[in-house]
Design brief:
Structural class of chain A: mainly alpha
Shape of chain A: flat
Strand order of the largest sheet of chain B: 1-2
Strand content of chain A: under 5%
Oligomer: heterotrimer
Distance between the termini of chain A: 54 Å
Number of domains of chain A: 2
Number of helices of chain B: 19
Chains: A mainly alpha (101), B mainly alpha (608), C mainly alpha (206)
Order of helices and strands of chain B: HHHHHHHEEHHHHHHHHHHHH
Helix content of chain A: over 70%
Shape of chain B: globular
Number of strands of chain B: 2
Distance between the termini of chain B: 38 Å
Radius of gyration of chain B: 25 Å
């Protein structure tokens, strides 16, 4: 999106932005409602993480324009996600697998 | 000097030899502070980094030379210099254990974060990368300047920490809690200094990555990049992704020290006979994980630029392409990726279970493969070559077996059964010093001799260079080889008396004197280098142009020194790979990357 | 000589320098917050009870016993709204509507201030009751994680205010360059929102 684009194009995007905002607001309500259900920790974690990922995905995809972004940005993100996952998997594994707990 | 108008390229080389003709965009002379202090020119920033880093390397070296007195002659008064340090550090000239620990922790910190990385990445990377890719500057010149000044501030904080009550940090460069949590004020300053240094590295990494990806000259595809640039690219990725967890850890340790939290403080900790009044529930192991998550990729940050420099010099002085360039590049990338999943081999003795220990042993063994491939590629590049034994080449050749020893001695450390015996002994110190000292530092010296004519338009003196090489090479081996022997005998690291109190160390304790004397002789061996640097800067033999007959753009497409604004009179076009030495059509010559040949149609089609 | 691709994108990568730079910066920020989140996980797994059997003199079973979920929910809505106004600010520039841009950017900054004000009340409420980081690891990680996030919000306010005020003069000189700057600042701001989207349920609800 390097040039000042045609107004019609942008108006379509504006509709998307407003829709995404409404969905995000709704999902926030859902998040809090689920919180009040007082589920045990593991299902609560999975549901909470899932909703957060959906919300985060919407922000990244539409507000941050990842839906139309170029390969080089994806490569950077994939490498980042990879090292992030390494940290998030290996730290708890190390904590749980000890000779003396 | 001609005066350029706004946006016009001016071609003054200036009498200061740095390539800066001092012209700002307004076309008139820049004031001294804009030209030399707060410059946004990558060449000036590279020199700033280089000078500062060399000074810190000298200072960090001095710290350990002082320690080595205590190790060679435990409890004895240091003649002449001992009285300079005052009664809180060396009463009667005898080093206190607290001061010994400060020297140890700060030697490591300064050499790694204030010396090697700024020199390898900040100095060499900044100066050379834009030139080698045919760019007028780095992508973000102001951020480049900010990166240097963050480094500078971090360095000042680290130096200042020696002068606060109870002195500098003394819990090792690794700053393990709980000890680091309860240490004196110097530790807080270490954490603050690290925050600035990490910021500097992050800003630099963003700059390098954007520059290499975006500012390559037309025709310079990724697989035509000089190996040095690939090394800097992977290094920058490591810095970008691995440093932030250490920043997080530093924040947590600062919270523990300043806000009294217990991130790293276990419950029920007893200090000096009293239970500590903290909430507890924290984990010292958490610090170790966060620290080594950075510090393992960091060791590859220390070696990769050095490999890059050696590769350039070997290709140039063998007059042949690098053996297996593509394989070496893929190995670099694979090495970078693997470096994120090996860190806990530094933690084998923390009570790890067998599954996770196995995982890290396997990844550690796997990561040795790309290292071996790269080293083999460099060795194989010598096969069938007509070697020119120039001063840079001497250093580059010296690097190869030294890195070999350093790497091979790492293998027993990467396997838990042997590591349990060797961890935290002098064996470890020998291992990593072989890689950084006769390894990286020798490679950095090679780079200085190689690129000095580019930066200054003058040659360095070869005789002094050769004396410097042999003294450095011999005495580095004298210092670090006996460490393996001491470590295998079981002598621990960070011992104030070098192990002399232990009976089992008795057969190997005499090496301490030998190593200490070697370290002082190593210092003397640097004098020819320092003299050479100053002398050649002012009165070295003038030789502008492509003095090494090199193929890469920094030699073939720009002047020595490069012109101030934009480096190139006009941006080069690239037609071929980086090491077309002795091509079939010109067996005694070379084809520069930007030299057009008789088949323009074919080369244009190849451009990406 | 001009540095290429500061405004126009490079053909083969498709991005300009600043956009690539900001994504690289955001990658490092992901690892920074990742380090803090993994510390949270490490401490929570290792703790016999979370937030702890008691904090201060109060027995607690859930985070919401100490933290205010309504305040944080409100703040979540505020940040999401500010993310929308931020992208609308950029879209207005792309439609050549400068006044509209100023309104949306102003709204973004105002919403950010609202977030900070709510956080101020949250923090002062805790601190005045002796609920400080040294009291328990739950409070320590709460203050640290949200505190680092707050610093990032403040950074965003500073950048956005510059682009709303003195920086907006660039619109008269080079529209594309200014729009790019707003887009890049937007990417940073959306990231700040993204972090909160994960922070909120993790700290307050789980």
């Amino acid at each position: 999106m390097a040039e000042l684009a045609h107004a019609e194009d942008i108006k379509k995007h504006v509709r998307i932005y407003i829709t995404v905002f409404a969905v995000l607001a709704g999902l926030t309500v859902v998040t809090v409602a689920v919180g009040y259900l007082r589920m045990p920790i593991l299902p609560a974690l999975l549901v909470g993480l899932f909703i957060a990922c959906v919300k985060g995905g919407l922000v990244a995809t539409y507000f941050m324009h990842l839906v139309s972004e170029k390969q080089v940005v994806f490569w950077i993100l994939m490498l980042t996600v990879g090292s992030f996952i390494a940290m998030f998997v290996l730290f708890p594994w190390a904590l749980s697998d000890q000779v003396v707990s | 000097m001609d005066h350029g108008s706004n946006g016009h390229n001016s071609n003054g080389t200036g009498s200061d030899g740095t390539g800066s003709n001092g012209h700002g965009s307004l076309g008139h002379q820049m004031p001294f502070w804009r030209k030399y202090i707060f410059s946004t020119d990558h060449k000036m920033i590279g020199i700033q980094y280089g000078v500062t880093a060399l000074l810190f390397l000298l200072f960090g070296f001095s710290l350990v030379m002082l320690m080595r007195w205590q190790l060679a002659y435990p409890g004895e008064s240091l003649p002449l210099l001992g009285s300079l340090f005052g009664d809180e550090r060396m009463p009667g000239g005898v080093m206190l254990p607290e001061f010994y620990n400060q020297l140890g922790a700060m030697h490591g910190t300064i050499m790694v974060f204030l010396g090697i990385v700024p020199l390898a990445v900040g100095a060499f990377g900044n100066y050379i990368v834009p030139l080698q890719i045919g760019a007028p500057d780095m992508a973000f010149p102001k951020i480049n300047m900010a990166s240097y000044w963050c480094y500078f501030v971090g360095g000042v904080i680290m130096l200042a920490s020696f002068f606060v009550p109870a002195g500098a940090a003394k819990a090792g460069w690794t700053s393990y809690p709980p000890l680091a949590n309860i240490e004196t004020m110097g530790q807080t300053m270490w954490l603050l200094g690290m925050a600035f240094l990490i910021t500097s590295s992050l800003l630099g990494a963003i700059n390098f990555l954007t520059t290499i990806i975006q500012l390559r000259a037309p025709g310079l595809t990724m697989m035509r990049l000089p190996f040095f640039v690939w090394a800097q690219l992977v290094t920058s990725f490591l810095l970008l992704l691995a440093f932030p967890p250490l920043e997080a850890a530093a924040v947590l340790q600062l919270m523990d020290r300043l806000a009294g939290s217990s991130f790293f403080m276990p419950s029920g900790l007893v200090v000096s006979g009293e239970v500590l009044n903290v909430a507890g529930g924290g984990s010292p192991i958490l610090w170790q994980h966060l620290f080594w998550f950075l510090a393992h990729p960091e060791v590859y940050v220390l070696i990769l630029p050095a490999m890059g420099i050696v590769a350039e010099i070997i290709a140039n002085n063998t007059r042949k392409p690098l053996w297996g360039y593509k394989t070496m590049v893929y190995s670099l990338v694979f090495l970078g990726v693997m470096s994120f999943v090996v860190w806990a081999h530094h933690m084998f003795i923390t009570g790890m279970g067998t599954s996770i220990s196995t995982f890290f042993q396997i990844t550690t063994m796997i990561i040795s493969i790309p290292s071996v491939i790269i080293l083999s590629g460099l060795f194989l590049s010598l096969y069938g070559a007509s070697i020119r034994f120039t001063t840079p080449m001497l250093f580059a050749l010296g690097f190869l077996p030294m890195f070999g020893i350093g790497g091979l001695t790492g293998l027993p450390l990467g396997l838990a059964p042997t590591d349990i015996h060797l961890h935290d002994t002098y064996y470890v110190i020998g291992h990593f010093h072989y890689i950084v000292a006769p390894g990286t530092i020798i490679a950095l010296f090679a780079g200085i001799y190689y690129w000095f004519p580019k930066i200054r338009g003058r040659r360095m003196n070869d005789t002094l260079g050769k004396i410097h090489f042999w003294g450095t090479f011999i005495f580095m081996n004298c210092i670090f080889m006996p460490m393996f022997i001491q470590g295998l005998a079981g002598v621990s690291r960070r011992l104030y008396d070098g192990g002399s109190i232990y009976d089992f160390a008795a057969p190997v304790i005499h090496y301490n004197q030998f190593m200490s004397i070697s370290s002082w002789l190593l210092a003397l061996s640097q004098i020819p280098f320092i003299v050479n640097l100053f002398m050649s800067w002012r009165t070295g033999k003038e030789e502008k142009g492509n003095v090494w007959e090199a193929t890469t753009l920094e030699w073939s497409a720009c002047s020595s020194p490069p012109i101030a604004h934009g480096n190139f009179v006009e941006l080069p076009r690239v037609f071929r790979g980086p090491y077309e030495y002795s091509p079939p059509e010109d067996p005694n010559g070379f084809l520069a990357q930007n030299a057009a040949t008789a088949a323009p149609a074919e080369t244009v089609a190849k451009e990406a | 000589m001009e540095i290429p691709y500061t405004v126009a994108p490079r053909p083969d990568t498709g991005v300009n320098n600043a956009k690539l730079g900001i994504w690289l910066f955001l990658a490092s920020e992901v690892m920074l917050f990742g380090g803090l989140f993994s510390a949270y996980i490490f401490l929570r797994i290792g703790a016999p009870a979370w937030p702890g059997p008691h904090i201060g003199y109060e027995a607690v079973t859930r985070a919401s016993d100490i933290l205010s979920v309504p305040m944080a929910t409100f703040n979540t809505m505020v940040l999401i709204a500010s993310s929308m106004t931020m992208v609308m600010a950029w879209a207005s520039l792309m439609m050549d509507k400068f006044t509209r841009y100023k309104q949306y950017m102003g709204a973004t900054i105002a919403l950010a201030f609202v977030f900070l004000i709510v956080k101020y009340f949250e923090y002062s409420g805790k601190l005045s009751h002796g609920l400080v980081p040294s009291e328990s690891n739950f409070l320590a990680i709460y203050f640290t994680l949200t505190g680092i996030h707050v610093l990032h919000v403040i950074g965003g306010i500073i950048v956005n205010s510059y682009l709303w005020g003195p920086g907006s003069k660039m619109w008269k000189v080079d529209k594309q360059h200014f729009a790019n700057r707003v887009e890049v600042a937007g990417l940073y701001w959306h990231f700040v929102d993204l972090v909160w989207i994960f922070l909120f349920p993790t700290i307050y609800l789980l």
